[in-house]
Amino acid sequence: MINEIEKIIVNEIRPYLRQHYGDIELLTVKDGVVEIKLVGQCSGCPSAKYTVENVIEKILKEKIPEVKKVVMINEMSEELLDMARKILNNHMKVPMKVPK
After folding, report:
1. Does the structure show a pLDDT above 80 at 7?
2. How many Å apart are CA 71 and CA 69, to the nearest integer?
3. Residue 37: how many other CB atoms lie within 10 Å
4. Which tens digit of pLDDT belongs to each residue from 44-57?
5. Would you call 35 helix, strand, or coil by DSSP?
């Protein structure tokens, strides 16, 4: 089933996402549940949930009846985490002004 899913991603889903400067990574497939990660402009997009439900899941379920659900896994990149750490560390070093 993984090979079928990858073929559909390459031929149908990825071209759609690339129109929006995004992409998709297939993470796992287990018991009919497909775990994916959206990348590029699709990562963190407010419409990502709807893209997964109305585009990705719909296409995969139509083409492969064994697919029960598509789950989007949100991961933060180490680069983003490092940036957040730096901002927080700098913020903590600034003395707070206490009103008189």
Report:
1. yes
2. 6
3. 15
4. 778 888 999 999 99
5. strand
Token pair of 89 as six digits = 């560390």
Which residue has tokens 């959206």?
38
Alpha carbon distance 77, 13 (integer Å): 23
| Residues whose CB is less than 8 angstroms from the CB of residue 7 and which lie 6 or more positions away in sequence, other chains included | none
71's CB contacts (< 8 A; 6+ apart) are 33, 34, 35, 36
How many Cβ atoms from other residues are within 10 Å of residue 34's Cβ?
A: 26
Is 9 buried (19+), middle (13-18) or exposed (0-12) by CB count in 10 A? Answer: buried
**What digits encode the pLDDT tens for the residues 69-98?**
999 987 655 666 677 677 777 765 655 565
Using the predicted structure, report yes or no on whether residue 23 has a pLDDT greater than 90: yes
